[in-house]
Description:
- It is a single chain.
- The protein has 523 residues and is mainly beta.
- It folds into 3 domains: 3-181, Sandwich (Immunoglobulin-like), CATH 2.60.40; 193-354, Cupredoxins -  blue copper proteins (Immunoglobulin-like), CATH 2.60.40; 371-522, Cupredoxins -  blue copper proteins (Immunoglobulin-like, Sandwich).
- Helices cover 10% and strands 39% of the residues.
- It is built from 10 helices and 32 strands.
- Strand 22 and strand 23 (391-394) form a beta hairpin.
- The chain starts with a helix and ends with a strand.
- Bound molecules: CU-O-CU linkage and copper (II) ion (2 copies).
- CU-O-CU linkage (C2O) is lined by residues 119, 121, 159, 161, 294, 445, 447, 503, 505, 507.
Amino acid sequence: MSTQAQFARRDFLACVGSLLATDVAFGQGAAKSEGFSEPPPFRGEPDVEIELIAQRDLVRILDGAPTPVWRYLGNLLKGPPDTLTPIRDSYLGPTLRFRKGQKVRIHLRNDLPEKTITHWHGLHVPMSADGHPSQAISSGQIYTYDFAIRNRASLNFYHPHTHEATATQVYRGLAGLIIVEDDEERALALPTGAFEILLVIQDRAFNRDHQLVYGAGMHRGMFGFYGDQILVNGQINYRVDVARSVYRLRILNASNARIYKLAWDDGAPLTVIGVDGGLLNKPETRPYLMLAPAERIDLWVDFSARAMGSRITMHSLGFSGLVPEMAYGMMQDDGVGISESFPLFTITVTQGVSDHRQAPTTLASISPLRLEDVANPTQPRPIALGMSHMRLTLNERVYASDDLLPSERVPLGSLQLIDIYHDHGAAMRGGMGMMGMMSMAHPIHLHGQPFQILEREFDGDASVYASFNEGFVDSGLKDTVLVAPGERIRIIKPFEDYKGRFMYHCHNLEHEDMGMMREFFVE
Ligand code: C2O
Ligand code: CU
Ligand code: CU
């Protein structure tokens, strides 16, 4: 456990000081104060039953000595055989493939040396199945999740949501993909099988013994963790061989804090067919795409005009304005910087022609959520991103159970207007003038049903904004939205089907663990 000491949150704690102090009340049973009893999520037997084990393992990531990781392993107890697909040579958990309408039962077994609980990011499930931190289980225990798949076809993922340990547990390797399929998507006959490429992008740092190193100084704590190695599907220098054909590339950013600006190295535009909550109504083209932690992007890529043997590399381009300028210098010693470009993965065309059709011009028919239909058109519910007393806050508070603001109580079955903005005043009042000026981007995630982005306003330096704003795709259903410094974003979100406490938080996992998390109580 020697290097594990580096992993311990000593440095992190040094930075955030009182942030992780014990005034955060926690650990009371989830249902105690709810005043409701949750109806069973489905009747009868499940269609799919899975055992998911969170355990320690060794995986060969770098040449030579293997790397100790924490990971999910799965066993399919019941259901279609393609429900569970392990990812070869990776610490990532098996990819779970569900169909809309399926009744799912998952038994999570904790074989880790500390508490954990798993969240199905993007899935609309009851509170009892949402991976609430109060439901964390100890080593040796099992938590059983029952839920029905209500989502439309989409790419989602699962990861721990353990109180103040989400960042470290994800960092050690605990994460996996969830694909939801439905009839609407199947009717489009999008590229599938070998023509559907799933890509999970993460950054990590290793020491000479190939052990994962987490955090090294106060600034990484405040800005989040930045690793100097890029891993795709758990591997370094990721390569994929393709045919001269059309492909579907589905990408998740499962990094703790790093934001990517995706672009092909030859400048080819990107054709987006979907985001977090599934397919867009129509394909959209971008010169580059911003992908913040927890965001997903679905691309239609046509390799049919490319020469045999040709190569194309997906890069992350440099950008400014999302992370405080002073942080750039601090991270300069990293192999992978922020302000310059670096490769993510490389594709090589190795097989002959099979398919060169165009993307369908109509993909879906989501009717927009309308401002006319929200319950609170003149009183948007605030999500104020701020800082006070050295703590990153939402609505001037850090996470605590039973600490609901009036604006956090939401009637079941309502459509709500939510206003996400930077609250610089709070930073100033907290005596953190300088920190306030170092405002940074926060990927804000809301549990439950996906939302729509109504509008984005920007007040700041237009030339800085121009280094990333063409890379946002705001037209589809989202569950995570990057809020850049100077931005105010209004979203419309339904709160249907399930009562209970559903979290909203920054998906910069270091920020989340510092307490940049709150709950909506749906009642
Ligand atoms: Cu992916 Cu509450 O998180
Ligand atoms: Cu989530
Ligand atoms: Cu944040």
